[in-house]
Model the fold of this input.
Amino acid sequence: MICQECNERPATLHFTKIVNGEKNEVHICEKCAHEKGEMFLLNGGSGFSINNLLAGLLNIQPTFQHTKPNTISKPTELNCKRCGLTFSQFVHTGKFGCGECYSTFESQLDPILKRLHGGNTVHHGKVPKRIGGSIHTKKQIAQLKGTMKTFIENEEFEKAAEIRDHIRYLEQSSGNGDEGGRPL
Done:
C-alpha cells in the first residue's frame, strides 16, 4: 500500500477512526507522519495527534496542584535529573524524556492515573480464562501467607490459625495442596 500523503513510499502507519459508525482509514509512511507532527489527517485536513490527546488529558494538573495562595516566590519546578525534562514540558508534549521521568514525576502522575482509570493505580493485567482461577487463587494464597506471617510476628495466633485454615481450604479446593506436609 502506498502512502496517501506523498504517493511515493510504502505506507507503514495505518490509522482507523470510527465515529458514529463511520469508518475512516489513513495509510501514511513514517516520513510523512514525522513531517506532519504525527497528525492523523482525517476529515479533510483537520488533524489530531496522540501528543495533543495526552496533553489535553494532562491539563487537569492545576486542580491537583497543592500551592499556598500567599506565596511570594514561585516554587521551583521539579525536573528529571537524567534528561532535565520538567513536568510542564511533559504536559505540553505528552511524552517523557527517559525512564527516570516516571519515578521523578510519580506524585504528579498518581492523581491523573486515578482519574483516568476510575480510581485504580495498580495494573492487574489480563489473565487467560482457562487458567485465570488458579492464578487468582495462587495470588490470594501468597497474600494470605504474608498476612499470616504478620499475625504471627504480632503474636495474634488465633487470627493466624484462621488464615492458615483458609489457606489450606484454598489449596485443597484448587488442587494445589501439598501432600507431603500433612499428618497421617
